[in-house]
Amino acid sequence: MTDSRDVAVDAITLAVVGGALDSSIREMTITMRRAAMSPVLAIGNDFSNAIFDGQARLVMQGQDQPVHVGALIFACKEVARYFGDDLSPGDVIYHNDPRTGGSHLQDMTLYKPVFIGGELAFWTVNRSHMNETGGPVAGGYNPMAEEIWAEGLRISPVKLYQAGRPRQDVIDLLATNFRTRRQFRGDLGAQLAACTLAERRLVMLVDHYGQETVQACLDALLARAETLMRGEILQMPDGDYHGHAVVEDDGHGSGDLEITCDVTVRGGDLDIRLNAPPAVRRYVNSYAANSMSAAYLGVLTFVDPTLPHNEGLYGPVHVDLGARGSLINAIEPAPCGLSTNTPLEHIADAVRAALAEAWPLRAGAAWAHACVNSLAGTDPRYGEPYAYYLHASGWGGGGAFWGSDGEPCIGSIGAAGAAMIGDIEMIEQAAPIHVHRYELITNSGGAGRWRGGLGCVFEFGIEDHDATMSQFGDGMKYPAAGVLGAETQFDGERVFKKWILRGPDGEPEPVPLHWAGEVKAGERVLVHCAGGGGVGPPSERDVDAVVADVRGGHISVDRAKAEYAVVLDRDSLEPDRAATESLRARVAASPGPV
């Protein structure tokens, strides 16, 4: 075969091949949405698609969950290394082990090697958050896990299909370990359908252009992404920058855990050095691939979002996770069930805080961390087991960016807006619950020149059955951090708060951060989701924007004065511009609480 480096590729062919890859990824996404059975995938979109070349280099990633895609770079290479030459057309591989590029056990990945002309040309890959892992706590989030074996079934790379023939014994082994077997089989079928569809599209592409031309295009796409990323980094002043984030006390004696980040910008390269305390005997540890994904995510929020997202993008970004065995560079037997939320979000926050020093005009505040409830039981409508990752119970506000306010109820930075809550009617159809309230919370967004996105009230009741509920995440102690002077004196009001309303009178029982227990039929769960952080001093926010916020119910009249130094008439909600100008002058002369 001709060396692809000797093949000249014109701009039109390069654009068409890149577009074909993107189209294939989009078709994978549509297939997953239509074919998946469990709500976390069909409604929540908690999956990611990717295409790798024959060298296991990421050449196209979907507009999916960023928490997944960075880790897939390492996972696909590990799977390719594991099987080596023991691969054939028609093979299908499955995997979730964090030791070899997995994130947490819930994220199960299907790999389909694509052979063209007898040679391995591509890998089509789908990683999906599955409802079940087979562990002692339904849904896989076990707050009491002290070892990874207490979190569910670990799957080292294994073939589900061999040369096109299903290995039914292996498929049955997996399904037998999961409570929601029917959903697992349906979701597995959706993963296989998505990867097979992409395989067909790639074969058609090579049939049209030839493997040498297509490979030359892939090389060019990777090289272009690296060049563009270096151009972005060159806009940052050379220097050393610092950031940190705090993982909240897990309630089992570890105390708060600080993650620090040192970033060095030198020319077109970015060096990121992360440090964290030793791993703990709880599920808040992160293995290397997941932590790398978090660091990449922190960088991606600072660069042009239109850059081509392939492996070349990360060439100039060099990440050091620090000592093995730490909270963010965990080794067996550390549990990691919560790792795609905590500490992934904190790693990204620490990187973003450091980069805010380097490039203030691209600065972004922290998003509300995920603090989610998962339900499990027997659905009385069908008599079948169910498990439901209830996104709406933990999807707080997004952080503001320089020049724009944060989005309300968008979820954590780890999902970056890609995970969906779904319509209320879809939630009630997916699980035997009734939603009583779902509304924005006034004053929940962090104050700033650009305001953080609002959190929400979400109240739901358990219908006609007793359910097991677990609670996991972060953000019940510390609010989402603001940057560039967006501090506020009302932080305690901008955290997650949750209660179970028990008994006939709805007596509120606070639910702690890491918890699993029972909610009985007829009882309700009341959730106050946190808001995102702000950017810039609140007293610099445009007065008319503050007025619009008050009229829209985003902030109160009192908070407008206390945080933004804007005085409004309580009846007309018209601003007193003279009083506002005087108050802001005093704030400028003596910064601090108004």
Report on this structure:
The protein has 12 helices and 20 strands. The protein starts with 10 loop residues before the first helix and ends in a 5-residue tail after the last helix. The strands form 4 sheets. The protein has a 7-stranded antiparallel β-sheet with strand order 2-1-5-4-3-6-7, with helices on both faces. The protein has a 5-stranded antiparallel β-sheet with strand order 14-15-20-17-18. The protein folds into 3 domains: 4-228, no CATH class; 363-536, no CATH class; 539-589, no CATH class. It is of the alpha+beta class. Helix 3 packs across helix 7 (288-300). Helices cover 29% and strands 22% of the residues. It is globular. The protein has helices at residues 11-35, 39-42, 66-83, 168-176, 181-209, 211-233, 288-300, 344-358, 424-430, 543-551, 557-564, 577-589; strands spanning 47-53, 58-61, 92-95, 107-116, 119-129, 158-162, 165-166, 239-247, 257-266, 269-275, 317-320, 371-379, 384-390, 433-440, 456-462, 467-473, 497-502, 507-510, 515-519, 524-528.
